[in-house]
Amino acid sequence: MNIYPTKDGIVVYFVDITEQKKIQEKIYNDGQNLRAIINNTRDLIWSVDRQSQIITGNQAFWDRVKKLTDKNEDEVTNADFVDERLKVFFESYERAFTDEAFSLVREREIEGKKVYEELNFNPIRDLHDVVIGVNCLLRDITESQEHLHKIEDQNKRLREIAWIQSAPRPRSSGKYPGACPALRPK
User: Fold this and answer.
1) What is the mean pLDDT of each run of 10 residues along the chain (186 residues)?
2) What is the DSSP pairing of strand 131-140 with strand 54-57?
3) Alpha-carbon distance 170 to 76, whole Å?
4) Residue 93 DSSP class
5) Which of 22, 142, 166, 180 is the most buried (most CB within 10 A)?
6) Can you count the helices (H) and strands (E) in the chain?
7) pTM for this one?
């Protein structure tokens, strides 16, 4: 609403902003839905720009950053990530900037326990299809890797048993069933 004075009184203009409010509400709701999607997972999700600066991340990501750096989201910089353990991330960002989407699995030890993590790196493109950033996802796959290792160990034992079972055995004859001919009394 706009009000303008005139010599005979005032002029009032009303503008219907219903559609504008609906659009604003839809944008807000879409943003809330997207935040719910990325924050309702234990997986770490984040994105970086061409300078490897963090653009955004989900709550699990920011919780891990806080644990590693003891800094909040608005305080952290790339200098906080010079640790050799994090070198894989910066190398992977560079690889993804060449327009390659890829995954890798890393094994590391945390508090004396083996941990397996799957890392996914996907290029982010602008309207002109130029890579402007990298979307990243880190998922703890320790449980599935432990099951896989157990299955591999069981398969190895089964192959050994099968080999032993299939090995040729000396034949027995006659008087002493199962006895090796070389061991029979003469």
Assistant:
1) 85 86 90 84 94 92 89 84 78 95 92 93 96 96 88 88 76 57 56
2) unpaired
3) 73
4) H
5) 142
6) 4, 7
7) 0.67
Q: In terms of C-beta density within 10 A (0-12 exposed, 13-18 middle, 19 or more buried), how is residue 48 classed? A: buried
CB 79 within 8 A of CB 90: no
What is the H or E stretch that residue 142 is in?
helix 142-166
Question: Tokens 């609403």 sit at which residue?
Answer: 1
Q: Are 154 and 120 in contact (CB under 8 A)?
A: no
Return the half-sphere exposure (C-beta side, CA atoms, 13 A cut-off) of residue 55: 14
- Look up residue 126 and give its two tokens: 């602008």
Task: Please provide the size of the chain in residues.
Answer: 186
